[in-house]
Amino acid sequence: MREQILKDSQKYIEQFKEKVFVIKYGGSMLDDKVLSDSVLDDITSFHNYAIKIVFVHGGGGAISRLMQQKGKESRFVDGLRITDRETVKIVDEALTSVNEGFVQRIGSRGVLAEPILSSRSLTIKAKKRPGTISEDFLGDIDSIATSYIEDALSRKAIPVISPVAQGSDNMPYNINADIAAAAIASKLCAEKLILLTNVKGVMRDKLDEGSLISHISEVEALELIQNNIIEGGMIPKVRAGIDALNKGVKKVHIISGKIPHSLLLEVFTNEGIGTEIVR
Predict the structure, then answer these.
(1) What confidence tens digit (pLDDT) does each residue in 158-183 have?
(2) Model confidence pLDDT, tens digit, residues 12-36
(3) Whether the Cβ atoms of residue 275 and residue 253 lie closer than 8 Å to each other
(4) How far apart are CA 225 and CA 277, in angstroms?
(5) Strand 52-57 to strand 158-161: parallel, antiparallel, or no bridges (unpaired)?
(6) Does domain 2-278 have CATH number 3.40.1160.10?
(7) Is 168 helix (H, G, I), strand (E, B) or coil?
(8) What is the average per-residue pLDDT within 41-69?
(9) Quick one: pLDDT at residue 209?
(10) Does residue 110 carry a pLDDT above 90?
């Protein structure tokens, strides 16, 4: 299937050559080697066609496993991990390991990949989220520095970015990976921000995959949030996408990472497979 998609993709390849795609990948899909191999094969194909790829990853499963190994209980409020001083260090350790794994796996495909870890590069600087308790290291983005990312791209490498940020207190802060990817895409004025998730995209009825909305404007998306059509974990993804559009990103895609070669199908076919959000 991959070969057929690429065979029919020439007009898209020319259109997107030398453009920047920021791709965020995370969730339970990270633990499925077949699915993650498909994603890495797709981004390698993009790279080989001279599309500049910036890869942002999460790693909730890896974090939970490491916490369990260290005898620490995972706690969540409104879907967000409670990140006390000990937990945020575990988050940083787990995501650093995930980052190293992705760098190696991309490298095994004959493509140079470079790790971008904020504890070393200060790519993502954090500020404490208002209203959180003093020992909660869940942060908001204060600023994005793109020099390490741009240097990697200039060397024809794929920067692989962990969403852990560094605060002014030199502590790591846990940042939502969708929000981190949107901020990075905005700073780079990316052609596309692609958020891979475990559902097909934005649906009018979350229980009916046939209700997928293939194309939606920013205004329509906000109305669907207001009317509780878009809800739960899809809200921060859509809001992050809208914020990116307002800051210069050309188009946002929310697609399923559970469909083999979903990235190629979304970008290199007329129909696509997920939801695209435009201004």
Answers:
(1) 999 999 999 888 888 889 899 999 99
(2) 889 999 999 999 998 778 888 999 9
(3) yes
(4) 14
(5) parallel
(6) yes
(7) coil
(8) 94
(9) 86
(10) yes
Q: Which residues pair with 160 in a beta bridge?
A: 55, 115
Continuous segment of H or E residues that includes residue 222: helix 218-226
**Residue reference for tokens 């997928």:** 212
Write down the pTM of the prediction: 0.93
Would you call 232 exposed, middle or buried from its count of C-beta atoms within 10 A (0-12, 13-18, 19+)? exposed
Task: Please state whether beta strands 52-57 and 20-25 pair in parallel, antiparallel, or not at all (unpaired).
Answer: parallel
Which two structure tokens, joined as six digits, stand for 79? 């879907």
**Strands in 8-157 per DSSP E:** 20-25, 52-57, 76-77, 80-81, 113-116, 124-128, 139-144
Here the tokens at position 29 are 């899909």
**Residue 103: which residues within 8 A CB-CB, separation 6 or more?**
113, 114, 115, 160
- What pLDDT was estimated at residue 134? 65
DSSP 211: G
Among 142, 170, 148, 151, which Cα is nearest to 161's?
148
The Cα-based distances of 143 to 118, 140, 183, 184, 187 in angstroms read 12, 9, 9, 10, 9
- Summarize the confidence of residues 70-74 as an average pLDDT: 85
Report, as an integer, the average pLDDT of 259-266.
94
Strands in 192-197's sheet, in edge-to-edge order, are: 113-116, 158-161, 52-57, 20-25, 192-197, 251-256, 275-278, 215-217
% residues pLDDT > 90 (the chain)? 66
Q: Domain spans of the chain?
A: 2-278
